[in-house]
Amino acid sequence: MYHTTVPNLYVAAIINKLNAKLLANYEDTATEDWQWFENYLTYGNGTLPESMLYAYLITNKPVYKKVALDSLDFLISKTFVDGNFKAISNQSWHHKGSEPDQYGEQPIDVTYTIQTLNAFYNAFKTPEYKKKMKAAFNWFLGKNHLNQIMYNPVSGGGYDGLEKHNVNLNQGAESTVCYLTARLLMEKLAMSQSRVIPIQKSRSGIAINL
């Protein structure tokens, strides 16, 4: 995020202004059983609660924090089934007050979910977010309704979609970038969690591992 790297009052003001509009959308649309910014869920949904999170981190306004957490919880309730990730169907999306279709999943949803959960985990260190990140990434590794991997292990390319009966084997740029981005985030998470074993020297001066 630009403001995190180069703090700027002008940029902070723009962020606050834009998120005030997003908050207004949320307050106009959200109900007890639909805590979202629009009357439908499409794809790349994680960017909206993530935006509210960054607004909170910059402005420290409690309302942004509440909406960020509530909307993320709502999104998780719609995209994780029995511990596994299931993207919103692109056949008809998920409209408020209706039952969504079950098939037609895109890699972009998986990666955006991982990015959003990573941002929330970095902000609040909630273990459940890390757990959900791993569950979402497992979608690429075969934890989906077809039990099929969603990338080409030879080329490193990501497959374009998961349909009802088949995997769309086309390896478009978007899908490939999404898979590689998700993988980098998970590798970074794994490295941050790994235990560093210190090396000490014995009395003879020879280095030994503990």
In short:
By secondary structure, the protein is mainly alpha-helical.
* Rg over alpha carbons: 20 Å
Report the β-strand fraction as a percent range: 5-15%
Mean pLDDT: 91
Supply the number of helical segments. 7
Largest sheet: 2 strands, antiparallel
Number of strands: 8
Low-pLDDT ranges: 204-210
- Strand arrangement in the largest pleated sheet: 1-4
Could you walk me through the main structural features you see in this protein, from its secondary elements to its overall organization?
- Helices cover 50% and strands 9% of the residues.
- It has 7 helices and 8 strands, in the order ααβααβββααββαββ.
- It has a two-stranded antiparallel sheet. It has a two-stranded antiparallel sheet with strand order 2-3. A two-stranded antiparallel sheet has the order 5-6.
- Strand 5 and strand 6 (167-168) form a beta hairpin.
- Mean pLDDT is 91; it is low at 204-210.
